[in-house]
Design goal:
The chain is of the alpha+beta class and 457 residues long. Helix content is 29%, strand content 26%. The structure holds adenosine monophosphate.
């Protein structure tokens, strides 16, 4: 997963400090690298590096650059390794002018496209799927940039929410299926595009609306123009996992508040019943807190901040090895002493992936004296890998794909374990099932077009 941000100021005021601040608000979407790109008339300039936004970029340096249009990116690697050259934005100065691109999502036909292009002389600088879009543009000699981008996007498949910088214009584009979120906002004479609305809040911009699936917004001196992509989707596949886990709860995605969705997911668990009223409800911080609150409210039970999280340890899931992941969980979470003693505990988390976190937390809460520990997961079992931008492991590592729920309950040593169903998930989010991507839960992947139809440039 990644975060993208972009700005275009019509009155010429500098925007790079806004880019820095916007990226800070999107930090949860990627911690591997951060970068910003801008143009100065003729060519593209890029500053980027590994690490968090404040490690990779210098706020005061960016603030001193007079560019009135720029884009930024925070990266969480799903395609391509963690090498410095894969940090985004990616940029090039080719025959038609400067181009820079910040991409959130995964292109599912990038491998076929890049070998097609490499066989025709393209020299790839990175192993990032996003570079395919730039190479497709550059392989259309004599075609003006916007047209070249539109025809490149007609050939790529999968998930892409993009902020693109062309010569004196900012583009926001969201794939026809709508996998990843993308919004547009405004503050005075400056337009912004962002992966999530929380990034607009931080810079005092107002949310105008979501970029629609299949829409290309062109923002320049004259204002904002909406264009339709050539490729049409049979149905939308907006990622349900954004609401479950990934997005920040103060964001509104496709008109649905992430905060409300999370509380409703917890309330849904409460409606399953089977819990004693005097049990203590605790959420796994921070991912399960809102669902736990929703569960406790709906069931009329007590919510306690029963587990404390060390906020200086990042998202454990992102650590590359199982050993580090396990150590990470121990460093990260600790139950409050005294709260669970002699009581039944209901522990809520947003999702269960490999089962590492749930197993650890159940044993911690037992050790702190709970009479029983009930685990509740505010999403359906994750059984299938994501090909659209979330780093879900292969099915062999997905515990729910390997065992039944009863076996899993035993494995994590809980007294009971419950999930919610896919229909319940969609209801809690408030979007019809036919609008949402639930592939990681039910294997309902998008049907892909034949690759041969997409190759010819
Ligand atoms: P696990 O310990 O492998 O079962 O992972 C479950 C925990 O990881 C939950 O607390 C989730 O909040 C979190 N999580 C789920 N999906 C992701 C993801 N794609 N990236 C980072 N963390 C995740």
């Amino acid at each position: 997963m990644c975060g993208v941000f972009g700005a275009y100021s019509q009155d010429g005021s500098p925007v790079l400090e806004d880019i820095y601040l916007g990226l800070c608000a999107l930090q949860h979407r990627g911690q591997l690298s951060a970068g910003a790109a801008w143009t100065d008339g003729g060519s593209v300039h890029i500053k980027k590096g590994l690490g968090l936004v404040h490690e990779a970029l210098c706020q005061s340096e960016l603030a001193a650059i007079p560019a009135h249009t720029a884009i930024g990116h925070v990266r969480y690697a799903t395609a391509g390794g963690t090498r410095p050259e894969n940090c985004q934005p990616l940029g090039a100065n080719y025959a038609q002018g400067p181009v820079a691109i910040a991409h959130n999502g995964n292109l599912t036909n990038a491998r076929a496209l890049s070998s097609y292009l490499a066989n025709r002389g393209a020299i790839f600088q990175t192993t990032c799927d996003s570079e395919t879009i730039i190479q497709l543009m550059a392989h259309q000699p004599g075609t003006v940039q916007l047209e070249a981008l539109e025809s490149a996007l007609a050939r790529v498949q999968g998930a892409y929410s993009l902020a693109v910088l062309l010569e004196d214009c900012l583009i926001a584009a969201r794939d026809p299926w709508g996998f990843r979120p993308l919004v547009v906002g405004r503050r005075g004479e400056t337009y912004f595009v962002a992966s999530e609305s929380c990034a607009l809040d931080i810079i005092g911009a107002e949310l105008i609306r979501d970029v629609e699936p299949g829409e290309i917004l062109v923002i320049d001196r004259r204002g904002m123009i909406s264009r339709k992509m050539r490729r049409k989707a049979r149905r939308h596949f907006k990622c349900a996992f954004e609401y479950v886990y990934f997005a920040r709860p103060d964001s509104v995605i496709d008109g649905r508040s992430v905060y409300r969705a999370r509380k409703e997911l917890g309330a849904t668990l409460a409606r399953h019943g089977g819990l004693t009223k005097d049990a203590v409800v605790a959420g796994m911080p921070d991912s399960g807190t809102l669902a736990a609150l929703g569960l406790a409210e709906e069931a009329g039970m007590d919510f306690e901040a029963g587990v404390v999280r060390n906020r200086y340890v990042g998202r454990t899931f992102i650590q590359p090895t199982q050993r580090v992941r396990e150590a990470g969980v121990k460093i990260k979470l600790n139950p409050q002493t005294g709260i669970f003693k002699g009581k039944e505990a209901v522990v809520v988390d947003d999702s269960l992936v490999r089962g590492t976190t749930a197993g650890r937390i159940v044993s911690m809460i037992r050790e702190s004296g709970a009479a029983k520990v009930h685990m509740r997961i505010a999403s359906p079992p994750v059984r299938y890998p994501c090909y659209y931008g979330i780093d879900t492991p292969s099915s062999e590592e997905l515990i729910a794909a390997q065992t039944t729920i009863a076996e899993l309950c035993e494995k994590i040593d809980a007294d009971s374990l419950e999930y919610i169903g896919c229909d319940e998930l969609c209801r809690a989010i408030g979007l019809p099932r036919g609008e949402l991507c639930t592939a990681c839960f039910d294997g309902d992947y998008m049907e892909e077009e034949e690759e041969d139809n997409l190759l010819e440039v």
